[in-house]
Specification:
Blueprint: E1 6-15, E2 18-28, E3 33-37, H1 44-50, E4 61-69, E5 72-73, H2 81-87, E6 88-91, H3 102-113, H4 118-131, H5 135-138, H6 151-164, E7 169-173, H7 181-194, E8 199-203, H8 207-213, E9 216-221, E10 224-230, H9 231-236, H10 241-247
Parallel strand pairs: 3-8, 3-9, 6-7, 7-8
Antiparallel strand pairs: 1-2, 1-4, 4-5, 9-10
Bound molecules: adenosine-5'-triphosphate.
Adenosine-5'-triphosphate binds at residues 15, 20, 38, 40-46, 58, 203.
């Protein structure tokens, strides 16, 4: 049987005294896309950020339970957080390229690693931009500022930046919510093509997007994981009334 690449066990997360994750246990499998859905404030982004310790950047956060990657708890004191965030890369809602050229954005992590020759970096930059389906848009402007690109192109360059350091898992927090439908469609197709090599977890408010691209879907409500199952099951025959109400637009 396939083993999960990430397992959360009974994760509780508090901002100050406020409990925003109330015991989340979830397995994420290799070469699958998992969608996290639920109303605003239900804890989806917080759970996503707990998978590569992005919550550590915020004060006043307490987390209990465990998040295991291949049987090691990432919250163990010995975890190297820089390495962790390379293995588990993240793409945010607003495209956030650095104010450098397209090339420098994608080469950034590789240059920090100091493991590659200039020729190798050139090749990885090209391969990553191709995998992120933005090469044709930017191949003639690699040395122009990434900030001069459209929002959709910037977001795909940000995805290329994550791919360049060869993560195992890619976390995406509403990556298309700031984009037009054509750019969103390109990103959806790209994510489907990346599934063969990566494990993908995506927070989305777009039910159509979740049903089009994900293999499994988790429905969050008020810090609880109400239901987690194959996407078809969640959308066609949900087991819980709350899930049914949410996906059929009765609340949220
Ligand atoms: N830095 C923070 N400090 C205090 N409370 C926070 C912080 N970040 C999030 N919260 C609270 O935690 C709860 C869960 O937020 P979270 O962003 O995970 O929800 P979400 O389901 O992703 O919502 P959305 O869909 O609106 O992004 C919310 O009540 C939110 O107000």
């Amino acid at each position: 049987m396939t083993k999960p690449i990430i397992s959360t066990k009974d994760v509780h997360l508090f901002y100050g005294k406020k409990e925003v994750l109330k015991g989340i246990s979830m397995d994420f499998y290799p070469n699958e896309i998992t969608a996290l859905i639920g109303p605003s404030g239900s804890g989806k982004s917080t759970l996503l950020r707990s998978l590569n310790r992005m919550n550590d950047f915020q004060d006043n956060v307490t987390i209990t339970g465990s998040v295991n990657i291949e049987d090691k708890n990432i919250y163990a004191p010995t975890t190297n957080k820089v390495d962790l965030r390379k293995r588990v890369g993240m793409v945010f809602q607003q495209p956030n390229p650095f104010p450098f050229s397209v090339y420098e954005n994608v080469a950034y992590g590789l240059k920090l690693e100091k493991k590659h020759t200039k020729e190798e970096i050139d090749q990885i930059v090209e391969d990553s931009l191709k995998a992120a389906a933005v090469w044709d848009d930017v191949k003639d402007k690699l040395h122009e500022s990434a900030l001069s690109l459209s929002g959709g192109q910037q977001q795909r360059v940000c995805i290329a930046r994550v791919l360049a350091v060869h993560p195992e898992v890619i976390l995406l927090d509403e990556p298309t919510s700031a984009l037009d439908p054509i750019s969103s469609g390109k990103i959806e197709n790209m994510l489907l093509s990346l599934k063969d090599e990566y494990t993908i977890v995506i927070v989305t408010h777009n039910m159509g997007q979740a049903s089009r691209i994900s293999d499994k879907t988790g429905f969050f409500l008020d810090g609880n994981l109400v239901e987690y199952n194959k996407t078809k099951h969640i959308f066609m025959t949900p087991s819980e009334k709350e899930t049914d109400d949410y996906i059929s637009g009765r609340f949220g």
